[in-house]
Specification:
Strand order of the largest sheet: 3-2-1-7-8-9
Number of strands: 9
Shape: globular
Helix content: 40-55%
Radius of gyration: 31 Å
Number of helices: 14
Largest sheet: 6 strands, parallel
Oligomer: single chain
Distance between the termini: 121 Å
C-alpha cells in the first residue's frame, strides 16, 4: 500500500518536469544546509546596515535627538516649589526615594571611603596597609583578613547613632501615604531605627540587621554581633558558636564582588511606575544603584538634594543606549522635570517639608524620637552597668567562698 506522501507527490505514477526540478532543488538545498552556509555579500551589507541603524538610533536617543514630539511637563513649574506643589497634589501618590551616605553624615557616621589623615578611623586602618580605604569592603580582602572590616565596625555600628531629620522625612512620606519605596546604599540601618516599614525599605547594599556564618550558614542577630564586636577594647572577629564550626560571622552587607540582595531586583520595577523620584546624599557613581534614575518614565519629576551637583544620574553609555535616557537635565533648555537643590540633606528635607506644610510635624517627630532613643540608650547603659557591677560582686563572693581556710 502506498503512503499518503507517495500518493500526494506522484499523481498517476508519473512526475512532470517541474516536479522533478523541484525535487532536485530541494535536494540541493538540503545538501547546502548540512555544510556551513556563508552569507552572501548582499546579506552581509543588509546586516551591517541594520547594526549601523541600531547604533545610530541609540546614539540619537543618548543625545536626546528624536523625531518624537516633546512630552509635556507634569509640573506647573520646573523648580523646587513646583516639585512641592506637585507632591501635595492628587497626581503624586507614589514617591520613590534614593539615598546615599549624605543622609547619615549629620548623625556622626564617619566617611569610610576616604578618611582624613589624623582621624581615629584613619589611624586605626593604617596598620593593615590597605591599598585604599574601600578595600576593607572587598570580599576577597575580607576572606583573607576580616580584621580591618571589624575594626571599622566599631565606628559604623548601628544603634550607636540616631536617625537624622532626613530619615524621619522619609518616614513622614510613608505616614502621609506618599512613599512607594525607599532605596538606600547605606548599611547603617538608620531607616529601621526611624521606624520605616520593612516592606518600604530596600537596603540595596545589605545591612547589619542580620549576619551569617560563612561556613555553616547559621544566622545571627544584630544584638549578638554587637555583643561580640564590643566585648573587648581590641578588634574582635565574631566566630560561629555552633558545635564543630569556627566560621567567621559576616554581617549581611554587600561587599564588592558580591551580588545585590534579591529584594533589590524584586523592586526595581517601582521606578517605572512612580510619580516622583527624590534622590538624596549620593553622588550616583556606584552601579547598579546609580542606574535606577534611568528607569523612570521620561516625564517623571526627579528632585536631587545634595551638596554638589554631579549632574550624574544614569549617564553611562549602556544606560543611554538601552533606555535612551542619560543623567539629570538640570541645565538643558528642554528640561521638563529635573530639579537640583544644593545643600545638606537635612536642610533640603526641612525646606521641602515647610513647602508641603509638614515642617512643624517633622521637627516635632525628630525631637520626640531623639528623646525616646536617648532615654532607651540611657536605660540600657544603666542596666549594663548594674549587671556588670553585680557580676563583679558575684565573682568576688565566689572567690571568697572557694578560698581554703587557714590551718
Amino acid at each position: 500500500m502506498s503512503s499518503e506522501k507517495e500518493i500526494a507527490s506522484d499523481k498517476d505514477g508519473v512526475k512532470g518536469k517541474d516536479e522533478v526540478g523541484a525535487d532536485a532543488a530541494s535536494g540541493a538545498e538540503a545538501a547546502e544546509d548540512k555544510s556551513e552556509k556563508k552569507p552572501s555579500l548582499l546579506e552581509q551589507t543588509t546586516s551591517n546596515q541594520s547594526t549601523a541603524e541600531w547604533l545610530t538610533e541609540c546614539m540619537k536617543k543618548s543625545m536626546n535627538i528624536s523625531d518624537e514630539p516633546k512630552p509635556e511637563s507634569v509640573l506647573d513649574e520646573v523648580s523646587f516649589e513646583g516639585i512641592a506643589r506637585y507632591i501635595k497634589s492628587d497626581k503624586c501618590k507614589n514617591i520613590v526615594t534614593m539615598a546615599g551616605a549624605g543622609i547619615s553624615t549629620s548623625a556622626g557616621i564617619p566617611d569610610f571611603r576616604s578618611p582624613s589623615p589624623g582621624s581615629r578611623l584613619y589611624n586605626n586602618l593604617q596598620k593593615y596597609n590597605l591599598p585604599h580605604p574601600k578595600a576593607m569592603f572587598s570580599i576577597g580582602v575580607f576572606h583573607e583578613n576580616p580584621e580591618p572590616f571589624f575594626t571599622l565596625c566599631k565606628d559604623l555600628f548601628p544603634e550607636t547613632y540616631r536617625p537624622t531629620p532626613c530619615h524621619y522625612f522619609i518616614k513622614l512620606l510613608e505616614k502621609k501615604n506618599k512613599l512607594m519605596r525607599h532605596f538606600t546604599q547605606n548599611i547603617d540601618t538608620l531607616e529601621r531605627v526611624a521606624g520605616l516599614s520593612d516592606d518600604k525599605n530596600v537596603e540595596a547594599h545589605g545591612s547589619f540587621n542580620t549576619g551569617h556564618c560563612l561556613e555553616c550558614g547559621d544566622e545571627y542577630s544584630l544584638e549578638w554581633m554587637k555583643e561580640q564586636i564590643f566585648s573587648k577594647s581590641e578588634t574582635v572577629v565574631p566566630k560561629c558558636i555552633k558545635e564543630d564550626c569556627d566560621g567567621v560571622v559576616k554581617p549581611d552587607i554587600v561587599f564588592f564582588g558580591e551580588s545585590l540582595p534579591k529584594k533589590f531586583a524584586q523592586n526595581v520595577s517601582d521606578l517605572g511606575r512612580c510619580d516622583c523620584l527624590i534622590v538624596m546624599g549620593t553622588s550616583l557613581v556606584v552601579r547598579p544603584f546609580a542606574s535606577l534614575t534611568s528607569r523612570t518614565l521620561k516625564t517623571t519629576p526627579r528632585l536631587y538634594i545634595n551638596l554638589e551637583n554631579t549632574s550624574a544620574g544614569s549617564s553611562d553609555v549602556m544606560s543611554m543606549m538601552f533606555t535612551g535616557r542619560s543623567g539629570f537635565d538640570f541645565d538643558k533648555e528642554d528640561n521638563i522635570r529635573d530639579v537640583f537643590w544644593q545643600g545638606t540633606c537635612d536642610d533640603g528635607c526641612y525646606a521641602l517639608a515647610d513647602l508641603l506644610g509638614w515642617g512643624v510635624e517633622l521637627r516635632q517627630m525628630v525631637k520626640e524620637e531623639h528623646e525616646r532613643l536617648d532615654k532607651e540608650k540611657s536605660a540600657s547603659s544603666k542596666k549594663k552597668t548594674s549587671k556588670s557591677g553585680q557580676d563583679h560582686i558575684d565573682k568576688s563572693l565566689n572567690k571568697s567562698a572557694n578560698k581554703s581556710p587557714k590551718m
